Structures are given as C-alpha cells and as structure tokens.
C-alpha cells in the first residue's frame, strides 16, 4: 500500500520519496515534504510588493487596467476598499466606484 501523497500537479498516485522531497515520475514535479503537511491551509494571496492580502483590505491599483468590452480604464492610484479573495486567476473580487463589480489580479494591486 502506497502512503505517499498524490502529485499536486497531475494527481498521479505513483509518487516516491527522494529524501527531503516527493517526486512524481509521470510529470516530473518535485515538492517538499513540508508543503504536504499544510494541505488544509488556504492559499496565501500576495500583492505586487509581496504583502499578504486578506478579505476586507483596502488596496490601490498600480497600473492602468483596460476593462474588457468597454472603453473605460481603471487608472493608476484608484483606491479599492473591502476586497474579497477568491480562487482563480483573477483572485480578487471588488467593487470600484464609478465602474462597478470587477475581478482583479493581485499582481496589479498594492496594499494600502
């Protein structure tokens, strides 16, 4: 019976122990044993400067962002209050004054 964790990338059951890390022979992914001990923890989302974000934070946009399907732009320095963190590529749900509900990437914002 294999008590090794499944590969987090490809979900392969054929992982093996290689000292301080696990290795998946199917996709070649390697990860530390410490990374598997905290599987129940939520992923940490960080802003462009590396600060950890949380629900309810206030952030500032660091780059002009074109709104898809519109001629509007979210300007640099726009303050966004009361963000909500979600899973996905666009990991922040928010409401911007004058524009409405939006999803943003954490790479384009900084914590105030």
UniProtKB/TrEMBL annotation:
Pfam families: YjdM, Zn_Ribbon_YjdM. NCBIfam families: phnA. Residues 45-112 form the Protein YjdM C-terminal domain. This is Alkylphosphonate utilization protein. Residues 4-32 form the Protein YjdM N-terminal domain. It comes from the Bacteria. PANTHER family: PROTEIN YJDM, PROTEIN YJDM-RELATED. Belongs to the YjdM family.
């Amino acid at each position: 019976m294999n008590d090794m964790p499944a590969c987090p990338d490809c979900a392969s059951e054929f992982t093996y122990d290689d000292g301080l890390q696990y290795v998946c022979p199917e996709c070649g992914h390697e990860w530390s044993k410490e990374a598997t001990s905290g599987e129940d923890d939520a992923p940490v989302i960080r802003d462009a400067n590396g600060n950890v974000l949380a629900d309810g934070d206030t952030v500032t946009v660091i780059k002009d962002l074109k709104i898809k399907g519109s001629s509007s732009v979210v300007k640099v320095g726009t303050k966004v209050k009361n963000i909500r963190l979600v899973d996905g590529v666009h990991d922040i749900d928010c409401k911007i004054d004058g524009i409405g509900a939006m999803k943003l990437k954490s790479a384009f914002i900084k914590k105030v």
